[in-house]
Design goal:
rod-shaped; mainly alpha; 48% helix; 2 strands; two-stranded antiparallel sheet; 256 residues
């Protein structure tokens, strides 16, 4: 059922989102009017909010991989900070509510303290959810398992990633995937080459070709100053005797 999901974190976080907000609303009702039935319901909901937050932060925790963009990692740090604060505040709220019920503290001031703790937990929850939404919908971490660390997704399979369109990923560079491209400017003869991708024909004006296809003046080409190429073809100096009798006869007649 869940094997197609690269991570169950988006499913798990909805439980604390609903329960933390609901517990704050119920606690506000208890501050307004003391209702015994709602007290126990509020305690159970606050307990569920804390334990679901704990599960989302541990068992169903998702973490970006090392190749994620730097901006995504910065957003993730903020998301983690507010998620931990949400976990702590939901735990404190649950603890305070438990103390008030089991020790039968019926003072209105104590209920206000519990309400303040529940509101702070809801605020931290909203901030964590905001950064989580930025991480997913702006930085692109999580959809189809992209930029997720292995072992933090359940049921995901790398073969499901084959249909991802990597051409639209603005953060991908040629130097990220092609080894050795980082030092391309340090290659011999590359320092003087024109970096324009189009061929500039005016740079070819100093090239000359002779009948033996021997290229001369190649030192005038950009980037060719460090290359040593022979400028003389040894076959140009090699001559064979002409043993054709007919050609010798015509030569003698022309000479006369």
């Amino acid at each position: 059922m869940f094997k197609d999901f690269p991570s169950l974190h988006p499913l798990a976080v909805h439980f604390p989102i609903v329960l933390i907000l609901l517990s704050a609303a119920l606690q506000a009702v208890l501050v307004w009017k003391d209702l015994k039935q709602i007290k126990w319901v509020t305690l159970v909901i606050m307990g569920g909010a804390f334990f679901s937050s704990l599960a989302a932060s541990t068992i169903f925790h998702a973490e970006p991989s090392a190749d994620a963009p730097k901006a995504a990692l910065e957003i993730f740090e903020q998301h983690e900070k507010y998620a931990q604060l949400t976990l702590w505040m939901s735990g404190i709220t649950f603890l305070l509510k438990s103390i008030g019920i089991f020790f039968k503290i019926n003072r209105r001031s104590f209920e206000i303290i519990v309400l303040i703790a529940a509101i702070i937990a809801a605020i931290f929850l909203s901030l964590a959810g905001h950064h989580g939404a930025k991480l997913t919908h702006i930085a692109g971490v999580g959809p189809m398992g992209r930029y997720l660390m292995k072992g933090h997704g359940e049921g995901g399979d790398m073969k499901d990633m084959k249909d991802i369109d990597m051409k639209n990923d603005s953060s991908m560079k040629m130097t990220d995937t092609m080894p050795g491209m980082n030092n391309i400017d340090k290659m011999p003869g590359m320092d003087n080459m024109n970096k324009d991708s189009s061929m500039n024909m005016k740079d070819m004006k100093d090239m000359k070709m002779d009948s033996s296809m021997n290229m001369k003046n190649m030192n005038n080409m950009p980037g060719m100053d460090n290359m040593k190429m022979p400028v003389k073809n040894p076959m140009d100096t090699l001559r064979f005797p002409d043993n054709n009798p007919a050609r010798k006869k015509n030569y003698k007649q022309n000479k006369q």
